[in-house]
Amino acid sequence: MIDFLLSGDAIMALLTLTFLEIILGIDNIVFISIAANKLPEHQRAKATNIGLLLAMVQRIILLFFVSFLVGLKEPFYTIETSWLHIAISGQAIILFLGGLFLIYKSTSEIREKVETPSHDEDEIKGKKINTLSQAITQIVIIDFIFSIDSILTAVGMTNGLHPNHNYALVLMIIAVVISIGIMITFANPIRNFINAHPSMQILGLAFLILIGFMLITEAAHLSHTSFFGQTVGAVPKGYLYFAIAFSLLVEFINFKIQKGKVSKK
Q1: What family does the entry list (predicted)?
Q2: How far is it, in rounded angstroms, from Cα 199 to Cα 217?
Q3: Which domain holds residue 81?
Q4: Which of 19, 131, 160, 252 places its Cα 20 to 30 Å from the Cα of 9?
């Protein structure tokens, strides 16, 4: 286990996944803040912290459940024709549906942020919250909605890193704990940074589209899908890490250029 966690692939997956969890959790932080701000001032921090801790527990439970489903590798039905072969398993179904969900959710979020950026915030502002328990309940519900794409992203980043899927589960749990801890500690600075650089959140959503396509491809590979005798190969995780790192490098250079232009004015 320790050897796996200290391997290059595991460390890259952990760093990338933690980064994505934080970037994609910004909306979560914003909506939690809106719900908590309806309480008296002395209860707001308590509601936020309790809500995020419960959210962490909720995500870990969901990770166990999804990890169990992804572990169902044995085919239960085979489609065999003259031009198509698919050995359908629980793992393939979860990865395929998860990939479709990530692509749909990401494209919907990008469109919503461009056309109606305050829609979700206005919806939450309209809900009545009078007590601490109501606020915590609302926070947990909000996080459950946001945790689905987070968990599918975790599965996409770690699936196939080790033959024992429990090792990948431990890695996902570590990433979730670290990201929630960072969000609790640095919620305001992270939110201010994203507000100043909104392209970072769009970039995070674009990464989800990439991960979604990778999940679909991986589902086809693990179900031994072949079209007209051509099999679908696995997508090496290194390609994904390189694409994300390269995109972040370009975005960082863009930050520096924009900052230089502002300082010269």
Answers
A1: Belongs to the TerC family.
A2: 27
A3: 2-264
A4: 252
- Joined tokens for residue 157: 């980043």
Nearest to 204 by CA among 13, 27, 8, 11: 27
Strand order, beta sheet including 84-88: 77-80, 84-88, 226-227, 230-231
Q: Which has the closest alpha carbon to 205: 94, 113, 97? A: 113
Predicted confidence (pLDDT) per residue in 32-84, tens digit:
777 777 778 777 778 778 877 887 888 888 888 887 877 778 888 888 888 88
- CA torsion sign for 81, 83, 89, 95 is negative
Residues of the chain with pLDDT under 70: 117-128, 187-188, 191, 262-265
For tokens 């991986």, name the residue: 218
Beta bridge partners of 85: 80, 226
Output the six-digit token pair for 118.
């305050």
Q: What's the structural domain count of the chain?
A: 1
